[in-house]
Amino acid sequence: EREAEARGASLRNFGQIWVSGRAGGEELETALRARELWEEIGARVPDLGFRACGSLTPVRNPRELAVAEAALAREDAAARGYKLLAADEVRAVNPALRGAFEAALFCERDAAVEPRTAQLALRAELSKSPNYTFLPGREVRDVVGEHAVRDDHGDVHTGDVVVLCTGAWLGGLVRELAGPELPVRRVRLQMMQTEPLGEALTTSVADADSFRYYPAYRSPARDELDAHQPQAPIAAAHRMQLLMVQRADGGLTIGDTHEYEHPFAFDTLEDPYDHLTEVVESFLGRPLPKIRRRWVGVYAQCTEPSRVVQ
Question: How much is the pTM?
Fold first, then answer.
């Protein structure tokens, strides 16, 4: 591990095991398999905080509803656990949503873990095995044959299989091994976390702008939404959607923005946070608790949604 412990995208995320918006085919199959693995490992490592909470995407008008209905008509809708709920059904599932909306798309297969502590919990469990060694502060600098790597201390590490987990770093050794045409880009985001809500948010929550972002929602209905219901200017400028997950301490992790152009900004902007606060409060029907933390992160994203690059 390059750092003393994980500090990148493994921590700076929602902790969502996100099935609902994935592209059909390989990406969906990978997401469903990942969800199974997280649940299995979560049963063995309770501190992961795995919960099969599902997600709700409230819709507020006929155009947004049409996108949800188109998603329900997908051949793989059942595999995702899609269901359309009326407003009273939504509040029965998630009573914290007291705001204004007409219905919501429910995805039963979505789940969540605790991102700030998941890596520590996994490492603590792995450390019980005599076959596990954690070596922090070391960076892989060279691949030596098929089953070994050399680190920046000059030490060689061997194994039956070597897996390079490169995160959002696409230069250096990654470029040497994968070449310059790897269909992967770096994406920068802004997120925040609140003080405890004071009540349970029983599902993850997204807004209809997530329909614009995720490939599973591509349809003539979404084209109609894009053409006739533009995003709020701030949301459009920062390629925003709302995703929200409650943490184990009751706080809410909320985001996010998407920045693709390099060089990335080095600072954060307040307007996106103001927009997210307004959207969340409109769903909750109450003021948002005080913001406790704000952060930025960078992650790697495949530029071809139908592919999973490994």
Answer: 0.93
